[in-house]
Predict the structure.
Amino acid sequence: MILAWLQFLVCVVVIGFAGPALTRNGDRIAQLTGMSRGWVGLIMLATATSLPELYTGISAVALADAPNIAIGDALGSCLFNLVMLVVLDALSRDEPVWRRLDQGHILTAGFGVILIGFVGALILVVREGFDFRIGHISLYAPMLLLLYFIAMRAAFHYEQRPRETEPQAAEVPEGVTLRGAIGRYCLAALVVGAAGAWLPFAGLAVAEAMQWKTSFVGTLFVAAATSIPELVVTITALRLGAADMAIGNLLGSNLFAILVIGIDDIAYRGGSLFVDISPAHAVTAFAGSIMAGILIVALLYRPGNRFFGFISWIGLALLTVYLLSSYAIYLHGH
């Protein structure tokens, strides 16, 4: 048991150290190429901090034969990213974080509702005879990839519209070149990839040692581990006064997680990934859609009241949905 948890914690620590390096160098690449701050959060940071989910998912389906770990990690990361909004809500002491955010995030959150909800529907209907595929590749995999790129294209065109001038990002340190930033970015990605590739094996060891279900381990523990870069980036961005970058990172990571599910389905040699996973993952998917919907309400309504002086009813609702869905996957997963 100790060895299993030690493996898991080593992966967590490695990702926790390499994640900020990914973010820092991704941000420098963005500054040196003239990208906007919103696009940094949605594309550069979201892609960088989501690499653990990508590597873990491919490793889980192609090497560890653990499809529940793969789908649980991707969907669990969506929930974990959204529950981080509770942390932002609590840390934003001077003004509710919902009142500091650009309403343009509604577009990304809306696509999150669509994509995550679509995955939840697939989990339920594919096992009922709607398993269409060519060879071992499900026809739903390219659909998920297409939906992701449609969302990114829509976000790109929205980003091109005239916007209010945003705060300038910090200056790039003297001596930092684009080539050097790209090199450090790739090196950090390799480190995160190595830890992410080992995570499913460590997760299976923890599940066996603790006699827990793999779907629960994937949704809660592996997802939390692979979401550590998002957590670090989000808190850092908020402290720097870049709340929009923080939210863009979280919502972009959720969209990227759905792209990862499509890639995992292609990499899974046993047939359709959606056939061989626990139907309880649909609970996680629908909970993610509900939480994204709650965020849309917050962005439109912009509530200011707080419970106990530090959390709004939006944050309380997000936390409640997260805890209830985690308990449901613990009871009914396998």
About this structure: The chain has one domain: 2-162+174-332.
